[in-house]
Amino acid sequence: MSNNVLFAGSPWSAFSGPNLGYVMEQYDLYLQSPEQVEPELVTLFQQFGAPVLGGEQVAVEGVAHETGNIQKIFAAVKLADGLRSHGHLAADIYPLKDRQLDSSRIELSAYGLSEADLTAMPASLFFHNVPGSVTNGKQAIDYLRAIYTGKIAYEYAHVDDAERQWIQDKIESGKTTVSLTTEQKKELLERLTRVEDFERFIHKTFVGQKRFSIEGLDTLVVLLDEIVKKADDEKMKFLQIGMAHRGRLNVLTHVVNKPYDMMFADFAHVPNDYFFPEDGTLEISKGWTGDVKYHMGATYTKDSGMKVKLAYNPSHLEVVSPIITGSTRAAQEDTTKPGAPVHDASKALAVLVHGDAAFAGEGIVQETFNYAETTGFSTGGSIHIISNNMIGFTTEHFDSRSTRYSSDVAKGYGIPVIHVNADDPEAVVQVAHLAFEYRQTFGKDILIDLIGYRRFGHNETDDPTVTNPLTYKIVSTHPTVRVLYGEKLANEGILSLEQVKKLDEEIYAEMQASYDHVKEVGATKGHFEIEMPEEVKNEYPEVETSVSKVDLKQINEDLLAWPESFEPQNKLAKILNKRVEALETDKIDWGHAETLAFAAILRDGNPIRISGQDAQRGTFSQRHLVLHDKNNGAEFVPLHNVSDSKASFTVYNSPLTEAAIVGFEYGYNLENENALTIWEAQFGDFANMAQIMFDNFISSARSKWGQKSGLVLLLPNGIEGQGPEHSSARIERYLQLSAENNWIVANCSNAGNYFHLLRRQAKMLGTEAIRPLVIVSPKSLLRHPLAAASLEQLSEGKFQEVIEQPGLGGNAKKVERIILASGKVTIDLADRIQDGKGYENIHIIRVEQLYPFPTQKISEIIAKYPNAKEIVWVQEEPKNQGPWKYALEYLLDLADGKKVKYVGRPEMSSTSEGDMDSHKIAQAKVIDEALSK
After folding, report:
1. N or C: which end of the chain has fewer CB within 10 A?
2. What is the pLDDT of residue 57?
3. Is the same domain home to 426 and 300?
């Protein structure tokens, strides 16, 4: 056998005879004492394994046996791997060329190699499949250098082996290269011209108006265009885009097809309704208070039927990402059949556009990545795009993050990163195709870092030279991508510079004509007034929520019919089996009533989705919607087996994340408006971490954007001696946000009332009247006998906004004090008064629905007690928290001369006492004062 042979695909195949023997000896030593082996060899052993030969032999000239030349081969392999791993550091990915590149790790001298050394080596040493144009080692290295240090840079060394090999093969085989036809290049130039002229026209026509222009990242539209085309080719039904405000108007216009005249009308303060496309391809919802134009969204239906949606989003960067993934998951699921929903990730795609500073800085980005591959929250992979203008407002990268790239966050989740120079439109097209194919192949997220710049300041009235003079000295002389690409096509002989200029003039004239039309219409037609829909102005209509006793007993039987092969944990089986007699003894506890409500809702045809930390079992072991076989851990979901069920049911234990999961569920509910979508906090104040979702979406999206939501929030609440963080759901925050019938805030004291509340919410899904439901849910009341429901209550009752305390108020003339309270404290009061004897002077009204405040119903009750002298509000929360300050205005209106009094804890900076003994003393004081003679 020749001593000069090489087997393609492995460095070991380059050796035979003494050389191979040496390497094998070193491998044996590596297995026993790796610290005694040269680091270069250790790296190769780790990467390629044992040095054994196999495959077809290929003769190679010029590879000698000496150990020194073996080291040359090792060095050459390391150089190739260095190009793959570190080529991005030297890549031409910065349009302004204002970042120092680092080629130190990919220079021949760093590996002790010369061009002659490489020329003597075979190309097959570096590739699985040698490109046809490459014949030796030098050409191989040059080829790799061109690939990895060009306008596109790749980071994929951190991904799983199969994915890494797939990406490498795609890149190095040339299969990712996109060769555009002459017509495609002309179309690309036209697209870039429209993108630029749109911004230029607005800048000149509407001087000083904010638009947060796309300029410097014009090829974002090209990138989105290509992804949309690929999704359409794959016959997807939905493509949903989430992005912040920069570039939004251009994307709305050129990707979502909002017509020029509609957009210019927004700037000219002319109602854009006059210019709405008559073909029905565009959907836009509006609220009665409205929002700035660069927060608005739209949905466009292509000829194929695929819907392209740009989500509505406020200026809070990154918060739309979980909403889009939730909406995408809903679009992927079939929830029309019993059992678990059928998930098909091929139906819809999420495209998430991030800002560079926000991507690195906002924690919700990591939250979204964290759940991306979990069972309940995966979407088969999102395509992420960093719209990278290399600055955050006025803050440079060295003050903005601690990493080299803003994209580095993604690498911790094993996500491939592709950096691309935004001034190269054809390279942008290429990375769009690769990213889409990766998502389709592996069903995982991928990130494109589109690197450009920002032509103006943070907004068009901002002067960036004040804080970033050096950058903007470069920007002021840097040609636009349209100009650069026009020159490129002229150099290729595809168009003349005169034709490029004429195209620019024609498109600009088209925009001018659209604006002239807007001015003409605006001069002759009036202004549109958008009013709150009548259905929203009114409270929920009366709906039937009771379920017959026969049906309830059948449901209960279905829920306890476990397979013969299934054996639940002994203690749990006893607890659940007590639900048989609970219907007869009127001891239906909270979890039982909830499950019966869910089953009845499924029978009505509404799917149910619940998520939250430990939602399957329930934080307080009250729910048990997913049972586990004690012998093998197999799961069984009783609600999948309810007779006559017409829809799917699922409940997921979510990651330890609040903001992103609330956003996900909100997005899911927006897309599937018929699904009862529920998020449960582990403890009520955990929702603090999701406050932005309540402020900017759930409480206000209907009035701003016309978006309907029926999302249900369960927030465990109760001052019970468990310390500040496990006490209050911060009811006051939701009440402070309450206005315009934007949602319902309830604090039930009875399991039966909770049953009907859930049923009422489900009945309203899909209607114009629907609104979110915030439920301050209990902890100790979950099993409290005074909070239990009766079978009759479920079969004949309805949701009661107020409940009068049984046993009190019998002698109306004796009642002098009327107590109003909500939630758990009403049970504390009931527990003290028992049958009411000795408390004839008191009546208690439980306020089960806090917003909208049931003024009329309370007024009717108060009117029955003519001798009442005072109205007392009792709460367990501190005076500056809880419902007191919200309720006070209503109470003053109801008082009609009566004294209005507060009973509860004093004002406190914390939500409660920190230990059980202090809690008991404070709580007893509240109850004593409320019931004092």
Report:
1. C
2. 35
3. yes
